[in-house]
Amino acid sequence: MDNSKNTTFDVISNLLNETLVYDSEMDLQYHRNFISNLSGCLATVFIALISITGNISVIVASLWDETLKVQTGNILIMYLSAIDIVTSVFVMFPSAIAVACDYWPLGGHFCRAHTILNYLCSCSSSFIIAFISFDRAIAVTYPLKYHTLITTKVMLSICCLIFALSFVPALLSCLPDWFSYNYSLGVCSVSYSTINEKIFLYGVIGGATTCFYFPACLVTICNAVILIKAKKSGKSIHLLFVKRHLINPVSDPHMRKTIKTEGTDVISRTWGCGGVPSSLGREKADETSVILGENNPRL
């Protein structure tokens, strides 16, 4: 199979008069075979289609159901679903095409856009998951003040903050000579071989801390708070035990005495005038007899 530096098959780049962007660390002897490329392409497309279908269902349910509409925290769920859809359409599908072709056939400009969307979506997902945990921790810690503290305006501000925090590393990743097609990963990403060691060190530390370590720490702290609150709430709940003999109230002596009194009152009222009891009286008398155990020798 021709390697990825063969421009004969780069139709889009030839039409747009562009130069290809390749992974400079790629060994020309390392290439996947046709079956591997086809399998990877189909698997990526399948996962992307499932992601699109599922996340569209989440958004439709969130907008349709009246209970979910009033939940301000559900805005983050819809935002996360929208980010996953963007990832599937603009990151996974182009990646599937590149894997199938065994090189990046979509040109340099789209590789730059692919790099931006790749880092934007990945960082946004991390931040959204972190703020979902933060939202749940607030709801558990302050259940009565939650709707006052976390309003729709506050939640939309959080979404804007997430986008801003994610856009900064995404914008830095598309600087000239900073990005290329990574053959091993099948995506356009930052090419660390073209960056000097000092910038590489700052970039890795800053990007990893901002997009991954900080969200991970926030999720850990919030989940710990939720577990502590749940444990305290569990200790404050006292279980209600019922005595075994009260499961069958008729067997209780006090209840039997009350039933006998009520039954006698019904019979006396029915026969009080010396006449024939009405159908209602007969029904009450029959029910009383059954309850008193006249038809049950065990009572």
TrEMBL record:
Keywords assigned: Cell membrane, G-protein coupled receptor, Membrane, Receptor, Transducer, Transmembrane, Transmembrane helix
InterPro entries according to UniProt: GPCR_Rhodpsn (IPR000276), GPCR_Rhodpsn_7TM (IPR017452), TAAR (IPR050569)
Listed Pfam families: 7tm_1
GO CC terms of this entry: plasma membrane
PROSITE patterns: G_PROTEIN_RECEP_F1_2 (PS50262)
Membrane spanning residue stretches: 34-64, 76-96, 116-134, 154-179, 199-228
Principal location class: membrane
Membrane topology (UniProt): Multi-pass membrane protein
Domain G-protein coupled receptors family 1 profile intervals: 54-299
Record-level Gene Ontology MF annotations: G protein-coupled receptor activity
Subcellular location: Cell membrane
PANTHER family: G-PROTEIN COUPLED RECEPTORS FAMILY 1 PROFILE DOMAIN-CONTAINING PROTEIN, HISTAMINE RECEPTOR-RELATED G-PROTEIN COUPLED RECEPTOR
Similarity remark: Belongs to the G-protein coupled receptor 1 family.
Name listed for the protein in its UniProt record: Trace amine-associated receptor 1
Organism: Nephila pilipes
Gene responsible for this protein: NCL1_38390
